[in-house]
Write a structure and sequence with these properties.
- The chain is mostly helical and 298 residues long.
- The protein has 7 helices and no strands.
- Residues 126-143 have low confidence and may be disordered.
Amino acid sequence: MAEFGFNEHHQNEVINYMRFARSKMVLRLKTIDSCFEELKDSRLVEETFTVDEVKEMLDGLQAVVRGEVEMELINTAHTNVLLLRQLFSQAEKFYLRLQSDISELENRELLEQVAEFEKTDFKTAKINQETNKPKLLAPLNEGGVAELLNKEIARLQEENDKLKSRLRTLESQAMSALDERTKAERALKDLQKVRGEQQLAAQSQELSSLEDTVAALREDYERSLSAKSASQKDLQENLISAKHELLRVQEQLSLAEKELDKKFQQTAAYRNMKEILTKKNEQIKEIRKRLQRYEPNE
């Protein structure tokens, strides 16, 4: 499955689903075969049949086979809906919104890749079976992309809370500094009258240094906040990439379903039955001709 870009975990999930789909297909084919066997055992007991009788048997067989195929197709569609439900539920835990491209479900190149995988890798793939399998999809492990992103978002949120707390502290310090400045300005006015211009210059220099400190603290906070915003943007891009990987799983599963349905329409059992019925009709016509030759009055 290297062509599809799956990791080992997702490849095993696809193989498990394909095995499930194959078992359902084999079971349904056995049911259809039993329909033909039942017809042979219950109806094909005479040597000759009329056209109406053959038509009646074929109509009955057609209704039964059609019902079986229709039931299987409906069940397959419903099964796929349950599979999508598991994928969507898991994605929503990480705030992802999945979407599908229906046009890709008939991509011949991808369908051929799935068929080739079923012939080769699917037969030899080794899967680590667990003793107790969960009924729903298991959450991604700690090494998964979404889990790492989720942890990183939580870490950034925590750092953001710390920065907010630090900002409140800085604002409190700034307010205290402003109060001190106001007090200092009032003190300067008093000192101007007593100590003169030299002491006033020293006090002004101290106030300027305090303002520079406040400005430096605010600039440091703004730089930290800008760096965190850039990191969150990178995380958003990684989330989108993880979303695309999940979409590929859905596409490949739908493509595999269509390929299996098409193979059923091309089975040799159906063509053989048609040839047998044609030969039977020809034999019946020949027998009737012989009867009319020896018993023309009848």
